[in-house]
């Protein structure tokens, strides 16, 4: 969930101008999602196929006044962002949270996340920015003195860019008791074997690192402590494992699991898709379509053309669904919503039974309701849970942005000063770094005019698209078109970018200075006062 000082990418802009998820940096690695590693993601498109990240373009029309990072494809993917967009449109509560691991100076790559938090806050969201100091200490081996040194710089830049602390919350993991209490509760629903599978932990992994992961799960769900609400976590795609685990844990904490059902027996999700298809096609097999029987559905399903039904499952899934239907015999096949008792107290279970209107059937460990939609049932279960002391978590959502290419090409790293621009760099130093940056230009000016530049491979064009053009899409497009059309040569382009970077840094640092007094007045410590040694490498 946190962004540290080593970021990298393989994409820049394309004609509209947007970034192209199909291009990849020379020598890039295959897709790898390691929250603490430094692997390059060579093809963002693979993330859609391998990890279920959805293309952001699909949800973009549903967002009022989207941020330019969204419009230009810098934010390229999402996981379940629609509830956030809907809350935004309807004026309902929603939240945004992201964290920063203080392992080095904040740089222009971090600004992407700062901007995303601030934009969501300006759209009416409850905004949270956190310093992931426990993670920095346990996973990166930072001393507390080093952490304190950098924490203040991240907070000052976030404030200088427009975060409103009166309408949002800033905190350090190590100082937030509510967060740590939530992490303890979430830890009761997690086990070490899944940490091994997700993160590659083994017997050499220090326990503090494991604890820091559970703390990050608590960070992601922290905005919902007062009330359940859609929450978006803006991150790079390497942080997706954290988001997926947090979504799983949010389910495990719920009092009730709500599913669609068709008979008294339980179905897996894959089996449910088959039985749902059978129910929808009951006219084809039921002697009485008003009361189709499980046995009839099983016989039909055993011979059905699944491709024609648009259902893709393994053959053993079909066999298990058919077996369950056949064993149920003449039991009616009837759509209903099922409330499964996952963690409910007896009082909560009884209250849910009482709250369900219409026809219902109560069993020892579940309740079937026949007159509720799935959405209404899920909301009712959440209301009862919250009323009886539960959290009622809504699945957290996420948006994913591309990493920025280093100014020298390849990886952007704080260990290579020329590859990145710190938000603390002297404006003249920022100017010089841009002037020295690698470009996507041709070997000679003649070839540039003849063939055009390769803006899609140019770190300098990325600076325009991600930062220097600001909200001005026309300016970003003009730079792109002039480059690929051969009208813009690299020398003049870098000069313009360097001057804009100098202006940005000067303005940003002036605002940072103005925020010093405000930060000192806020209820967040920039000095932890902790003692201890950095954990060993795992």
UniProtKB/TrEMBL annotation:
Record-linked Gene3D superfamilies? HUPs (3.40.50.620), Tyrosyl-Transfer RNA Synthetase (1.10.240.10)
Tell me which stretches of the chain form a coiled coil. Answer: 501-528
GO molecular function per UniProt:
ATP binding; tryptophan-tRNA ligase activity
Sequence motif 'HIGH' region, location on chain: 102-110
Known catalysed reaction(s)?
tRNA(Trp) + L-tryptophan + ATP = L-tryptophyl-tRNA(Trp) + AMP + diphosphate + H(+)
Which keywords does this chain's UniProt record carry?
A: Aminoacyl-tRNA synthetase, ATP-binding, Coiled coil, Cytoplasm, Ligase, Nucleotide-binding, Protein biosynthesis
One GO cellular component term: cytoplasm
Pfam families assigned: tRNA-synt_1b
Would you say which domain of life the source belongs to? Archaea
Any single biological process term in GO: tryptophanyl-tRNA aminoacylation
**Which InterPro entries does the record cross-reference, listed alphabetically?**
aa-tRNA-synth_Ic, Rossmann-like_a/b/a_fold, Trp-tRNA-ligase, Tryptophan-tRNA-ligase_arc
Region annotation (Disordered) ranges? 1-35
Compartments (UniProt record):
Cytoplasm
Motif 'KMSKS' region extends across 411-415
Q: Where is the composition biased (Basic and acidic residues)?
A: 1-19
Q: What is its EC number?
A: 6.1.1.2
- Membership in a protein family: Belongs to the class-I aminoacyl-tRNA synthetase family.
User: What task does this protein carry out?
Assistant: Catalyzes the attachment of tryptophan to tRNA(Trp).
Q: Which HAMAP family match?
A: Trp_tRNA_synth_A (MF_00140_A)
Q: What name has this protein been given in UniProt?
A: Tryptophan--tRNA ligase
Which species does this protein come from?
A: Halogeometricum rufum
Please spell out the taxonomic lineage of the organism that makes this protein: Archaea, Methanobacteriati, Methanobacteriota, Stenosarchaea group, Halobacteria
